[in-house]
Amino acid sequence: MPTIETSGASRADTLSARFGLCHSGGGRNCVVDGDTFWFAGERYRIADIDAPETHPARCAQEAALGEAATRRLRDWLNAGTFTLEPAGRDTDQYDRKLRIVTRGGASVGDALVDEGLARRWEGYRRPWCQSSGAGGSSSRSGLFGPAS
């Protein structure tokens, strides 16, 4: 099982967990979607990214990309030790703990963005579904074209 380091204001704790997949959680160690997971009874949101929704997705493209992001986050969390670092405010409007998730100084958020499975969080959500006839190009491509 991976070891998890949680950064707090006064100390860092080392814990162990194995993550599965879940739609909502409720105390288990599991990944809800590409930017949300449950750990030790607490719900966390990766503060520096926005990943596609899976439940409910708004189109087939978002569903497929969201499932890929969800599996990738689960695999990343299960691959070894990581740290949960405070990210400004403590919780979001849904009472999820906002944290930057890192391993060896590398952010899982950065990894998901680099792989085209998430976007940088800019303070608001943008649609993941492409309208027909939408054009444009990007140097970063996700599973279904531009990730940004």
Structure in words:
With 148 residues, this protein is α+β, with helices and mostly antiparallel strands. It has a domain at 20-120: OB fold (Dihydrolipoamide Acetyltransferase, E2P), CATH 2.40.50. It is built from 2 helices and 13 strands. It has helices at 60-78, 108-114; strands at residues 3-7, 12-16, 20-21, 30-33, 36-39, 42-46, 49-50, 82-91, 97-103, 106-107, 119-120, 141-142, 145-146. Strands 1, 2, 3, 4, 5, 6, 8, 9 and 10 form a 9-stranded mixed beta sheet that branches. Strands 7-11 form a two-stranded antiparallel sheet. A two-stranded antiparallel sheet has the order 12-13. The chain is globular and about 40 Å long. The chain starts with a strand and ends with a strand.
Give the key terms.
13 strands; disordered C terminus; 35% strand; globular; two-stranded antiparallel sheet; OB fold (Dihydrolipoamide Acetyltransferase, E2P); 2 helices
CATH fold type of the domain at 20-120: OB fold (Dihydrolipoamide Acetyltransferase, E2P)
3D shape: globular
Rg, rounded, reads 15 Å
- CATH level 1 class label of the domain at 20-120: Mainly Beta
Briefly note the structural class of the backbone: alpha+beta
Give the H and E element order: EEEEEEEHEEEHEEE
Helix percent reads 10-25%
The separation of the N and C termini measures 34 Å
Number of helices: 2
Query: Beta fraction of the residues?
Result: 35-45%
User: In the CATH classification, which architecture of the domain at 20-120 applies?
Assistant: Beta Barrel
Mean pLDDT: 81
- Strand count, sense and closure of the main sheet? 9 strands, mixed
Low-confidence stretches: 9-14, 133-148
Number of strands: 13
